[in-house]
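Supplementary notes for students who missed Thursday's class. We covered one full example, reproduced here. Read the sequence, then the structure, then the short commentary at the end.
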Amino acid sequence: MTTWKNVWTDRELLVRGAVSLLGLIAAVYAYGPFLARVELRRGVAFVDPVHILFAPIDLTWITFTMVYGAGLAAAALLLRRPASLMWAMQAYTLHVVFRMMMMWALPLDPPATMIPLTDPVASAFTGAGAPLTRDLFYSGHVGTLVVLSMVLPQQWARRVLAAMSVALGVVLIAQHVHYTVDVLVAPFVAAAAARLTRTSA
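Structure (token representation):
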């Protein structure tokens, strides 16, 4: 198992960690302006066959409790395993790149019945304005949990995160935040991002 001592004394590991971190920072830096541009684009809207079965339910707090809870717990576990942490950074970076490519290739207008998802933490600390409504294909929240479920070193944690990603997908569809296809595609693309960046972690 790779330890932090190994990282600080192994030039190859140190370079790999630095490149992973820089790649993540670059992707996150580009992500915000990209989402702002996506929000200005007109896209295609359609009737979701699942949405018509029930009225939307506001589950915002459940969504962000799962997202932030999973993120913090995963960070705590990954900090103990630097090789897994590097893999996580690389996989998340590729997940962001894939999502940007797909959103640009397939612009969508939000479901007519959507209850917008407002991030309570971002709103409290940044005073962010109107929530994003066109960052749809594919679901970034579900994709993130899937990435984490694959890179965590502990088997029990991977199972918990995998179950949470399914639950989160149901919650997002119930709020009509995403079209069903956005949620169904997310695990496959996110899993591909994790597999393509797989290392000896």
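Commentary. Residues 4-196 form one domain. The first helix runs from residue 4 to 9. If anything here is unclear, bring it to office hours.
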